[in-house]
């Protein structure tokens, strides 16, 4: 689905009232598009990308997140009351701060939907388009904090959406576990060896999540 702004349909002007009002209208507009596919963004979205203008004051940005949660809950309740909420997906929420948006909007919402295909299809395997990766820990030991790097939304056997985020603090932690690492390095600069280790750590986590959700041997597409 294309990104949606907080435009009032009759006038096609941005709703006045600030970022939370624009966000709510953008979600309503997104839901109107989703209805064309006999679904709702409240139960069929696997990912929301929320573009927020840098013109939104920092003190108001948390309100955008709260408003998104509130509106989605209201939409799910409405769908539940209609008996249309048999299978709810819990989407990844990705917020992106941008310098400007079309029409000088403060917020743009881009949902990614998963819609069940009612048509019966025959599954085929194309050998030269898949590969199998043997289990590989890439010299990393499993740790509970690894889960803090990942958001995921999984449609069993069909889609696995992963957002992997490594902050500067986590990158330092990854590098500090490397044999021979200089733990007295306080400038937080990463050389080629450190960048290589961080990259391998990201691949290790992606491989772990994919394998853990039954996607071993599938095509791995990395989007940076």
Topology:
Elements: E1 4-5, E2 7-8, E3 13-14, H1 19-35, H2 41-44, E4 45-53, H3 58-81, E5 92-98, E6 107-113, E7 150-155, E8 159-164, H4 168-176, H5 192-212
Parallel strand pairs: 4-5
Antiparallel strand pairs: 1-6, 2-3, 4-6, 7-8
Structural class comes to alpha+beta
Order of helices and strands: EEEHHEHEEEEHH
Radius of gyration: 21 Å
Number of alpha- plus pi-helical segments: 5
The CATH superfamily of the largest domain appears as: RutC-like
Determine the fraction of residues in helical runs and give it as a percent range.
Answer: 25-40%
Shape: globular
Briefly note the CATH topology name of the largest domain.
60s Ribosomal Protein L30, Chain: A
Query: Which architecture of the largest domain does the CATH hierarchy give at level 2?
Result: 2-Layer Sandwich
Low confidence ranges = 119-135
The strand count comes to 8
Strand order of the largest sheet: 1-6-4-5
CATH secondary-structure class of the largest domain: Alpha Beta
Verbal overview:
The chain has two domains: 110 residues, RutC-like (60s Ribosomal Protein L30, Chain: A, 2-Layer Sandwich); 86 residues, no CATH class. It is built from five helices and eight strands. By secondary structure, the protein is α+β, with helices and mostly antiparallel strands. The chain has a four-stranded mixed β-sheet with strand order 1-6-4-5. The protein is globular. α3 links the parallel β4 and β5.
